[in-house]
Amino acid sequence: MELVHFVKNEEAELAKKMESKLASLDRRAGVLFVGVSVQPSTPESPTIYQVWIGCSRDIDPRMIPTLVEVALYEEMAAGHVIRTEAKMGRTCS
Questions:
Q1: Domains of the chain
Q2: Burial zone of 22 (CB within 10 Å; 0-12 exposed, 13-18 middle, 19+ buried)
Q3: Which stretches does DSSP call E strand in 22-91?
Q4: Model confidence band, residue 92 (pLDDT cutoffs 50, 70, 90)
Q5: How large is the average pLDDT for residues 56-81?
Q6: Theoretical Cys-Cys bridge with 86: which of 13, 48, 61, 92, CB 3.0 to 4.6 Å?
């Protein structure tokens, strides 16, 4: 039987807080949408917070991880593991 790991309430609340912080950044930061998911800890690995940012075409998506590091500095300083992925949409003609 496989052991299933669950997200703790505190981890879910922290993910919501991170999402809110990032979504409330100034529009000039280029953040269009945000999502944060939680990969619960296991005996082999810590809890990982996966951040997805949809960015505007005016922003280089390679800058998004740095933006997340600055915005979530307190969380990272507290030792939380945060991984960031930037998405930029395409239009079809």
A1: 9-87 (3.30.300.30)
A2: buried
A3: 31-39, 48-55, 81-88
A4: low
A5: 95
A6: 61
